[in-house]
Amino acid sequence: MKISKLHISLNNQTLVDIDFEIISSLALVGQSGSGKSLTLKALLGMLPSAMQMELEHSSAYALRAGESLSFVPQNPFTALSPLTKIKEQFFVAPERVKKLFSQVGLDEDLLERFPPELSGGQLQRVVIAMALESEPKLLLLDEPTTALDPQTRVLILELLKRLQKEFGFKILFVTHDMESASALCEDICIIKEGKLVESGNLQEVLRMPQEIYTKTLIEAGFTNRTFRK
Question: What pLDDT does residue 147 have?
């Protein structure tokens, strides 16, 4: 999928003006306020009404949230109704829900529980299962491991990689965390103040960043740099 133009403005002031291509898995990385979250909201059709958007893209499917697009939010604790059993928050048949639970590594007994009774890692797996209900072509990830401990973070990233192979969806991973981006994605776009400053194969960018901003993000994101061969 190729986004040939994404322009977001407010009161004639440009907030985001970028283009990118998602071949398999793309990390959109930048500091807070860089425009990465606005990009995600634009694709989901969730921009505030006061903002104006121009979007030009080419893909084999229409960009529709809940159909070709699915979304995994940053905080699973706020993504679910705390007073509703897990099983009642899905919109597909019970047998399909059980299969999804199996695919994300959850025991179906958890379907009878309420969200506050589950751990953060379990809740994030529930949210991922919900995102797969519609068999999306593109999975949008909004820093889905931020609220998790390091060990659980690794497990969730490994799960997402496995599910991508199994379901065949593309990934757009919005994050400020270079280490998580490196664990999940093949390509990267670095965004600053609504503009792309660097892009390419993720491992190559990590090894030989061309921009000072990129180098700063890398240094902030890794304590011990280890790169895949």
Answer: 75
